[in-house]
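Raw record, unedited: Arylsulfatase
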Amino acid sequence: MSVFADACGYGLNDSIDNRTITMKATSLFLLSMLLIFFSSPAQAAEAHQPNIVFILVDDLGWSDLHCYGHRYHHTPHLDRLASEGLRFTAGYSPAPICSAARASILTGKTVGRLGFEFVTKNTPGRQSLDIDVPLLTPELTLNLPTAEVTIAERLAAVGYQTAFFGKWHVSQHYQRRYLAWHPDFGPKQQGFAVAGEDFGDHPYAWDKKHPPSPAPGGVFPRDSMIQRTADFIRRQADATKPYFLMASSFYVHTPVKTRCRWLVEKYERHLPPDAKHRRQRLEYAAFVETLDHHVGTIMDAIDQSGQRENTLVFFMSDNGGHPEYCANAPLRGSKWNLYEGGIRIPMIARWPGKIDAGVTSDTPVIGYDLSPTFVSLAGGDARGVDGIDMQRVLREPSWKPDRHLLWHFPYYHPEKTFSKAIDKIGVDDFTTSKTRPQSALRKGNYKLIHFAEDDRVELYDVAADISEANDLSQSHAEIAAQLRETLQQQLDAMNARRAVAWE
């Protein structure tokens, strides 16, 4: 009774009878419950909603950062982010290729359920390869349907400001301009109230006939996409609403051409003379450090806004590293295939006071977990997705839910030069290999890959054998059979599209 009385502003020693106190307190209590029940989710969650800054980068390999063990890449800002937060050692992309991964991250659904498993194109149709192949792949998906509910839409429903800057790549290239946002399927049609199409200082923005001049020594060129991002953050210093910002970097995607020649000269002194693909890797190292500088600019803007303590920063790559530039070792494979080099990626989370500083987690986390995690911590509705709410692992890095992760890639790659690509997929090949239709499932430490052409599987213990060198499908035949059955059942339940034999 005293709780109700105190809630009303009355104390038991006030000159009012207990029955009156009880009636008024009970009435107020019931009214407050009704207000909570009928109020919007945004009003109910407003008091504890953090800002969320999601930094998605392009083609950054799992071992590309110094904090992930790279021997000579200089990445002080991302290293600091990791030292101030949680670094995932088993973070995964939902797909080994751009568009599919981004569609999955945005919606919280697997690519198999979305039917968006490859990269978007200018026009509809099917893959066109330079040689005949055994299987017919699904028709190309050009746009993420606006009927799909994105992270931005879910967060806007609970009172968030939403903003997007950078690479979209889940709509067909508008008017055949590479990566140009389609006006019917762009960020503003998917829940982002603020959105700016801007290539920044990435070579995508350069005039091929008249590229910009090299930057002065020690100077990083101004990147307009990053500046827009930082300006938005600084403007939130006195905002009354929380915000969700997605900064989708074009780095370190090809073409790997840098204006920072001084950085290339710097890495000339660090990279051994006999290193494989030395010239490409020098340019790439400069690209990685430029990306790190951009992340530092964003982090500085958060500090300048005074919102550091109330901002969750989440950083990840959209898929593994490009094989012609990135040494993905110790991981096997690269972008485009489902070995670890194609899907295991750097992933870091920082939230001062909520996430312990300088910790690591080997809990498998995948990009389609972000939607339910972000939305749940904001007090919103995270139902209808394939991912799970991973807030607990942010608090308890050793926590491991009983679940599986799933990937599906029913296509061939590379399309125009498939006949020339190498057949074997190894470690640090530094060349593009043949990727054939395949699917994969990880449960616990075991990962199964199913190859559709010959209905073959491979099984690896990726905790003990991170390079996927020892196929256990014969010695652990029962585990392989169980995971294979689970994989096929899941794909069937999702109505996943398959590569099929030609009629």
